[in-house]
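cron nightly-structures :: item 1 of 1
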Amino acid sequence: MSLPSLRGLSLDRLASFLQIAEAGGLARAAPGNPIRQSQLSRQLKELESALEQPLFLRTGRGMDLTAAGSSLARVVRELGQGLTDVAAADQGPVRVALGGGDSVLQWLVLPRLPQLDAAMRGIELELGALGSDGVANALREHRIDLGLLRSTEAAGELKTVRLGVVSYAVFTAIGREKLPLAVPTTERGLDRAIASLGCAALRCETFPQVAQAVRSGAYAGVLPTFVRAHLPAAQFRMTTAPALDAIATPLLLAWRPRTLELRPQVKVLRRALELALRAALT
């Protein structure tokens, strides 16, 4: 395979381009450092000249990537990860990034790390809590290697495998009746179902916050049913409801096919995650 000969193309300029892209502008990439901003601007102009097309749209709010810029950012991230893997060969662990919702990482992934021990040899696992829309985008942009997401968020070039179904229920401390309801505010699709249960008295940003409210004994709370492993049945009651059953959603493990081709460590970890999490959701 022959590589294109592009005058002005260099790893330093590509790294500077990615720094600007991830910051959203020159000033944000080097705040309070006009000398570095000037250097970044020069390197960007040289890179755009080499590629013969603009990589950013300059707006009043900052700098947005063009279609070419988005494509280049994905290529540079993949290149950077590949070079990092080569440099780390036989010298240390390879970093693998896994993204998912905070509750999925906290209650499904972290308790099962001992089951992943063999698959994680030679790997430094990095967990990233991402919002509902963030996992698929982070995968496409090469910011994470593996992602846990709901089926409604998977699309395009990503490969997925179904792990099971995430369903919801109301958890209450045993012996406490007619408690006010704690609910999450950032979970899409739950609002209508929750409204059918009555008025919420406490709105929390995340499911772990709802769980803490339930543990206090002062609130009932809407939580994923997989939390039952962390709220003992002797102390907490789990009650299902038709409205909550209706919004149960498949949970998927997702990845870019090329990642598994280029990074065998990710392939091994992907399979181990699939087995461990599928067992947890059955």
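cron nightly-structures :: done
The chain is about 40% helix and 25% strand.
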